[in-house]
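Reading a protein record of the kind used here takes little practice once its layout is understood. The fold follows as a row of integers, each naming the local backbone shape at the matching residue. With these conventions in mind, the following record can be read line by line:

_____
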Amino acid sequence: MAAAGEPFLLTGISSGHSADCECVFSSQFRAWLSVLINKHLFRYKYDYRNEWLRLINYLAEPANVDEVNQRAFFAVASVTKAPSGAIWLLKQGFYEPVYRANLPNFVNLQEEPVGSPFCRAFIESDWVFIPDSNQDHAHSQHNEVLPHWTKNIPDLWLIFPLIVAEELIGFIALTKPTTDESLTWEDLDLLKTIGRQIASYLKRHHQEEKLAEHKQFDTYNKLVAFIVHDLNNLIAQQALLVRNAEKHKDNPAFVDDVIGTISHSVTRMSNLLKKLKRDETESITLVSIDEVMSQALNECMQGHHKITTDIQSTSRIVIGDPVRLVMTISHFIKNAQEATEENGKVHVTLRIFEDQVLIVIEDNGSGMDWDFIHNRLFKPFETTKSGKGMGIGAYLSKEYISELGGSLNVVSEPGEGTTITLSLPLLQE
């Protein structure tokens, strides 16, 4: 029996029985046997430890959104020595070319449908396409499904998949290196492994990009919800004027009140629309507590005359958006008014302490139970006012108080009223 290092199998196959072997063994089996022999009898082509450390170090370097695809491609090129190529990634039902490196301008890279036979070959067998392989070679057996656009890429060498778990997120095409371009089982195994690592890298960055977009949309949606909520209040004021116009249109005091209310509404709506055009940081200013409370109480006095106050006058300042701060305070006052009968009580207290302002809004209205306060009061799009709102006001108000570094406490019992305590940090004198 031959020793492990002796080419026993090679000589056995290449002896006088070669003609019979040609008949018995298929080309695929001979290719498989060749790989088996090379794997067990010859030394490895790559130092895998060095190759893997180089790849990981390359991908671990910081990269912004525009550099991610570039870094992924050149991580592959550093191992394969491919001079040019391109990356395709999954986007809305198609694999679209997202990066190209050193390809001539005339090369027209095209998108590939998700369900094409070409893409299915990647998923079903983790296949690496070698377009220029001989027709009787084992790696040419799926070349008939290569898309027509692959013929537009000069010196196309191979195309390998980018797979995460069982998901094909894309693929990479490489052109022939200037050095030895022959491929062995070792090259193909390494490419598949690198492909999975690159796929994980690209998918992670794609998810981070989506998360950043969702955060931006979340901020914008909160702003729009806030604007819609405040517009509803302004519309309610205008509707009240229209209802009373026929009855009081000959009263000069009523006319003056109409002019003042409309002027106030126009100013508020202009400020709200500006918020959609301005950077969020531009609306953060020094806000006078006295001015904010005065505006909030004036808004709530229109059409309602059941508010009593105990306001400590002050020159102290908070840092915030004056429009949102007025909306937040007036929201809780208006909620107290709506929960209280005409002969009920709504009392607003303001006290200044060393480093914070405390606003307490008390009413003797219908009140709320513990479950409603903790599970529904601050839940977005949850409302008890049928047809009167989006159920977003309490949620937005609490969120904004938290943004300012303040706190909100609600104490209530059904039938016994509610006390809301709002605390905001003051600018240090």
